[in-house]
Sequence to fold (452 residues):
Amino acid sequence: MIMIGQYSGPDPTITNYTQRVKQAGTNNTIYIFDRNNITDSQQTITINWGSNANVDRVAACEFRNIDTSATPTDGTSGTTGANGTTMTTGSLTTAVDGDLILTFVVQDDTSTATSVAGEQTSWVPQASVTLLHADIARFHCGAYQIQATHGTNTLNVATQSGNGAGWISATVAYKNAAAGTAPAAGIHIDGVIHTNISGGWAATTAKQQVPNTGNLLVAGFATEPFASNPGISTISDTVGSTWNNAGGGPVGPSSQTGVTCDQWKAVNISASSSRVITWTYGNSVSGGEPSFIYDISSADAAPFDKRGTDWGTDTLTTALITHDSGSSGGSGTPLGTPAGTGELMIQVGATFDNSVATGVTAFTAASPGFLLTSSDTTPDIGTTPVDEADPAAVYYLPNANNPGNTTWTKKQAHALGDFAAIATLWKAAPAGGESSEQIAMRQSINLSIRAF
Fold:
């Protein structure tokens, strides 16, 4: 399922997906699309925005045990509400017991937070509701619940805490069936939140609500370099988890025209829908800085294995970011061999370019991994100086061997400038398996698209 919110422009379409519901508010229009009966494999989602679309909210989620017929839905609804009221599905009529009720809620204004003070405090799910994502800077959330008994009802979804406004919601009910594949035993990612600091931020701190189901959070960041105190200085959250660097501090060229990458971790954590993470940069940032926060299940009690780094200044028309020291004129430490089988590798990297890019092709990640998220195939050209093109790749390593050519490649008609990257290896806990008898979320991805 794909959830989209936009301020203006023609209706989007998604290749091979069906639009199930559209709901317009005063300032925003929101949509839910889906594609059912998909194979258990990597999926490419192609969203067609049309001309002059102003889009700021996109989220994707995957469920199993959904009806595989040509008509998997069992009703839709959409509604609007005033500031301070409980957000609901609107009147929803269903005919089948045990439906999955998926709802997308957006605050119906034309702003995003440009400071921590402008962010919401949190999204608060109602009884029996599970948050998929809860963006407090761009004011939207996705949530689901299971309706035990069919009928006509208006179901509560969530409330806003702090800096609220009027809201709009869109809801789709999906019929249940015994179908789909449970996640394989071993360490795996349940969700990722990818967002970018809004332009004009001018502060040292930022925060994001991260509803998690796993026992490990890994956060990756990219920033412009600072003359002192580069990267992230501290991270804390509202449920009291301990956050530390993932194997070392930030990496990047010392040049003032470069870019810096950083990774942090919180281990042995419990599931929480209310977790709000606050991170502090070493210096004030001006907007555009990307972050990736991974919610990971079945991680070992001491999950961190090792990391590799690379940074440098690219002068080639074929830009290469790799974790093999010395490639592309880079520096750093090779990743090395995993300590055991079935480890997870997470890579976060960034390039920096302040000129108009031409002849761009997308980042690619070499086998045995795949590119999980990428905010840009073209560096942003905007009013702020931060122009990172920031990929993140995830690899599952079934054997205890060298991960091989762990490489991102990006080609364009001129050099990309400075680059930096970090890869980390994470150990799996003994597998516990998952039940496949009820509707269950497999993965959720929230992508907040940068708009200048």
Summary: The chain has two domains: 2-181, 188-428.
